Amino acid sequence: MTSSEILEQVAQEVSACQKCILFHSRKNAVPGEGPANADIMFIGEGPGFHENEQGRPFVGAAGRFLDELLAKIGMERSQVFITNVVKCRPPSNRDPLIEELEACSDYLERQIQAINPKVIVTLGRFSMARFLPNAKISAVHGQAMHIRARLVVPMYHPAAALHQGSLRPVIERDFAQLPELIAKASDAPEHPVEVPQEDKQDPEQLSFF
Ligand code: URA
Ligand code: SF4
């Protein structure tokens, strides 16, 4: 299967998925969207009200801010893949539960494998925790790290920056690094080399950024 076909297959499975209780309350599942060969993949938390209505990721206020952040680095939404750690809206936008994150995890894993992005940007705590289970976002945001042979940059959630104005320049600065990170990652081999098992729990911050 091509990457696009895998993404299409995942989207179809997500739309019919009943693997966790979130399927009961969803109007539309939100598999995520973007080109199969995107350099950057953004991983948010979960669909909110508008996403649940439309079946598309980041289409509310946080999404508009994400578009603005992309525009500031000369990019458009159509160039990046955007998805979430849970594909169905948690009722009243509550935090996703561990069992929901686990039930949904395989879809995200297949999307990452299919797209093989140069950079993964996690937006918010739940998406960061998938790669850095014990990290504090205030300590690691904006730091590019090699984790399981992927280049991962944890960032604040755009909604957090909307609610807390002091985070706005922080997230803007973190975004500003992305073009350089992508350019550097372009020099790396097309298919990342698997890191040895014993290194997997020990993400190292890259010293050269
Ligand atoms: N917040 C998220 O984490 N994801 C969305 O898709 C929208 C808002
Ligand atoms: Fe399935 Fe994920 Fe939706 Fe739960 S959140 S029903 S696991 S697609």
Describe this structure in words.
- The chain is an alpha/beta fold and 209 residues long.
- Helices cover 43% and strands 12% of the residues.
- It has ten helices and six strands; from the N terminus they run H-H-E-H-H-E-H-E-H-H-E-E-H-H-H-E.
- The chain has helices at residues 3-16, 22-25, 49-54, 61-72, 98-115, 125-131, 137-140, 158-163, 168-176, 178-186, and strands at residues 40-44, 81-84, 119-123, 145-147, 150-155, 204-205.
- Strands 2-1-3-5-4-6 form a six-stranded mixed sheet, sandwiched between helices.
- Strand 4 (145-147) and strand 5 (150-155) form a beta hairpin.
- Helix 1 packs antiparallel against helix 5 (98-115).
- The radius of gyration is 16 Å and the shape is globular.
- The protein starts with a helix and ends with a strand.
- Bound molecules: uracil and iron/sulfur cluster (SF4).
Short description:
The chain contains ten helices and six strands; from the N terminus they run ααβααβαβααββαααβ. It is an alpha/beta fold and 209 residues long. A hairpin with a 2-residue loop joins β4 (145-147) and β5 (150-155).
- Count of DSSP strands: 6
Mass-distribution shape:
globular
Number of helices: 10
Radius of gyration: 16 Å
Backbone structural class: alpha/beta
Main-sheet strand order equals 2-1-3-5-4-6
Largest sheet: 6 strands, mixed
Strand portion: 5-15%
